[in-house]
Design goal:
Elements lengths: L1 H9 L6 H26 L17 E9 L1 E22 L4 E6 L6 E2 L4 E5 L2 H30 L4 H27 L1 E3 L4 E6 L6 E2 L4 E18 L11 E6 L4 E9 L9 E8 L11 E16 L5 E2 L5 E6 L5 E5 L1 E5 L4 E4 L4 E7 L10 E5 L5
Parallel strand pairs: 1-20
Antiparallel strand pairs: 1-19, 2-9, 2-13, 3-5, 3-8, 4-7, 5-6, 7-9, 9-12, 10-11, 10-13, 11-12, 13-18, 14-15, 15-16, 17-18
Length: 372
Amino acid sequence: MTNTAQDAKALEFQDDEGASRSTWIATALVVVIVAWMGSGFIFPSAEPTAAPKREAPKPIAVAVKPSVAESVTQYYQAEGQAIPDRDTELRAEVSGDVAEVLITKGQNVGAGDIIARLDATTNKAAINRANEELARAQREFDNAEALLQRGVATADRVAQARAALASAQAQVADAQEASKNLVITAPFDGRIETLDLDPGEFVSAGSAIGRIVDTTPLTVTIQVPQQSLTRIKNGQSATVKFITGEERSGTVSFVGTSASSQTRTFLAEIEVPNEDGAIPAGISANVQIPTGEVTAHFLSPSIVSLSERGELGVKTVAEDMTVEFHPIQVVRAQIEGIWVTGLPDKADVITVGQGFVSEGEIVNPRPEEPTR
């Protein structure tokens, strides 16, 4: 019992003076901080800090180049193909054996030149038979008429004799015409492209034996779209550049009036002199046809831009230093640049910086620096 009481008495607590002092110090610091923070509302500064002023943006500097419209020739340009002026198959008019061939493949011939002859033996026999039949028919007709005058023969017999005579005369004419066709001649001036004929060979009437072409003059064909048809007319001059490097002047000789059902284009032909035959048929060609004069500006393709509406155009600087957008149309293209319409006769075209300015914006134009 005595020890327990003593232990209970030892567990009694007393106030710590150091801990109490720390609490008062912390409370005082909080009061001071709050008072300092609130002093700005109770005693405001005499002059509030002024907000910084922003300067207005300066106009964007762009490079401009004066441009003056010039008169330029418009051209219609198309790819075409050279074809012979005339191209014909050679055929045997009668049947027979080939007696001789006088022309070789690739040789130039004139109209009427003999290409080959067929053997005339069979034809001579046919002519002799036809003449004998004609003589017999003539005698029969003469006898029938004499008998009719004497009242022995009838008019029907005379008519039959007359018909037989006419038939015999036709046989003689056919045999004589066949003798002419034994000689195969050139129908016009040209070049023998193919010739499948050998001496001793039998040919049938109507069979193809060769081909003759005339490339003097040469014809170049092109296809003209519907929207350009009114620009092409007969008699217009044209410049034709062949794939071989040859360049010739030609004339539009034909413009079609019926469109192709597949391509909806119209056929046009340009006649090109080729007296020396240096340009072969079948090669490709580029055709340029002048179609009139137009006033246009010559510009670099790099300064062309698109508007918000998707129009192709050029930006210029007006007198009040604002940007203007002009829709353009390309009328002619060259390696060095393009000719366009849609601009005033005189314009200050933006050449550098056009991508950073918009229509109606004020700019600071400067002359374009010359390229070295």
